[in-house]
Design goal:
Blueprint lengths: L2 E5 L8 E5 L30 E7 L2 E2 L10 E12 L2 E13 L2 E5 L8 E6 L4 E7 L2 E10 L3 E9 L1 E5 L20 E13 L7 H6 L3 E5 L3 E7 L4 E7 L3 E3 L2 E2 L2 E8 H8 L12 E6 L6 E6 L2 E9 L5 E6 L8 E7 L5 E6 L11 E7 L6 E5 L4 E3 L7 E9 L2 E2 L6 E3 L1
Parallel strand pairs: 2-13, 9-14
Antiparallel strand pairs: 1-15, 2-9, 3-4, 3-8, 5-6, 6-7, 6-13, 8-11, 10-11, 12-13, 14-19, 15-16, 16-23, 17-18, 19-22, 20-23, 21-22, 24-25, 25-28, 26-27, 26-29, 29-30, 29-31
């Protein structure tokens, strides 16, 4: 059965920035749920934690809307805590009509590039997903000064089929269905404790930097272990407003550690778009763009014009990664035995043969092959030896492992 990595609940019509860690004591209390966070250095912040460091739009600082803001209509970025482990990062339009009197709307301009930098204290950011486009995400800070994240994004048009169950599992209609309400640039996010997902600490660490953003009413992707594929699904990405079409967009950024552990890609640094095969379902599907970015692969889909597209991305088979060392010890005067584990990534095909080679200094190599650990090499010279391992599948031999000295 495929394992769902992340499914956005229909009630959460917003992006999510998932984190690890829990709240700890600090100089001032964590703002209550639903209460906007202050700008760092402004009351009630006293310690520079759990506050907004800065917000800019197209490189220009955007001040907060306060009780003293003059009458007018303003971009109104905000951050607030949802519960003990979840922080919302949002953008709205607020109209001030007089002292202490204002109204807010989620309909913001889809133009402009926003940059939020937020100090989340002891919360450690991991990933972001939701209704945004052209997203970048980076991390900073530490447990002492407070963890920080910086998210760069553009708002994205999203239309909602209110009063109906619109999800990837049905209820979204077809390419003639129109929406009831449009958020013409809804931007909001959540920072939450990934421990609730049941992932291990290693899996959470592997996801650090993961992105999953879209302008669909519902979207997610999962890893299908049976096909060693990522399956991406969206629902209602094309509906702009009653009678007006829009096009769907999807972006996911997959860190190298996830590519290795979940897609069996031995060397993510070598990936290009041609390293993957893509299967698209539904008429009108458009090509996927895949590029290497720092420590990850960035996958984007643009111009989706129908309601429920699905994309399967399957890495093309490659030679496997290097086996992982166990031990190396001499057995008898002229033999050494190497123990090892399978590569972290098998290249998408079963590993059938392993090889070990050993030598003294710069002398000749002495080799052995076999189908599993351990492998014994002999006869070999006396004294200290340097040994290496590699693995083989139907695509060929993978690289030699890091050398191990012993004997």
């Amino acid at each position: 059965m495929p394992r769902v990595l992340r499914l956005l609940p229909l009630a959460l019509l917003v992006p999510l920035l998932v984190v690890t860690g829990t709240t700890s004591a600090h100089a001032d209390p964590v703002p209550a749920a639903g209460h906007p966070w202050p700008r760092c250095g402004s009351a009630p912040d006293t310690d520079g934690k759990y506050c907004i460091v800065s917000v800019t739009k197209d490189g220009v600082a955007v001040p907060p809307v306060t009780a003293s803001t003059p009458a007018g209509t303003y971009d109104d970025p905000f951050v607030q805590r949802v519960d003990a482990g979840t922080v919302r990062v949002g953008l709205r339009t607020t109209t001030v009509t007089g002292p202490g009197s204002s109204t807010s709307s989620p309909a913001v301009s889809p133009t402009g590039t926003w940059v939020y930098r937020v100090n989340v204290g002891s919360i450690r950011p991991v990933e972001l997903y939701g209704n945004l486009r052209n997203v970048d995400l980076s991390f900073g800070g530490n447990a002492t000064t407070g963890h920080t994240f910086t998210v760069t994004f553009q708002p994205t048009p999203v239309a909602w089929l209110l009063g109906s169950d619109c999800s990837v599992f049905g209820g979204c209609g077809d390419n003639s269905t129109v929406a009831d309400t449009v958020y013409s640039g809804f931007a909001s996010g959540y920072v939450s404790d990934d421990a609730s997902t049941g992932l291990t600490a290693a899996q959470i660490a592997a996801r650090r930097g993961y992105l999953n953003v879209y302008n669909a009413e519902d979207a997610y992707w999962f890893y299908d272990s049976g096909r060693n594929s990522l399956v991406m699904r969206m629902a209602n990405p094309h509906l702009r407003s009653p009678g007006v079409r829009a096009t769907g967009s999807f972006q996911t950024r997959i860190p190298d550690a996830m590519l290795i552990d979940q897609l069996n890609v031995p060397d993510p640094r070598a990936l290009t778009a041609r390293s993957f095969s893509v299967v698209r379902t539904g008429s009108g599907a458009v090509p996927i763009t895949l590029t290497r970015v720092r420590g990850a692969v960035d996958i984007r889909v643009k111009g989706v014009t129908f309601s429920t597209p699905e994309y399967s991305i399957h890495p093309r088979p490659t030679p496997p990664g290097a086996p992982r060392w166990g031990s190396l010890r001499r057995v008898g005067r002229h033999q050494v035995r190497a123990t090892f584990r399978a590569p972290r990534a098998d290249g998408g095909l079963p590993v059938k043969v392993y090889a070990v080679r050993c030598r003294r200094g710069t002398g000749s190599w002495h080799s052995a092959t076999g189908g599993r650990s351990p492998l014994t090499v002999g006869p070999v010279p006396t004294g200290r030896l340097t040994c290496e391992l590699r693995a083989h599948n139907k695509r060929g031999w993978g690289p030699w492992s890091t050398p191990r000295t012993g004997g």
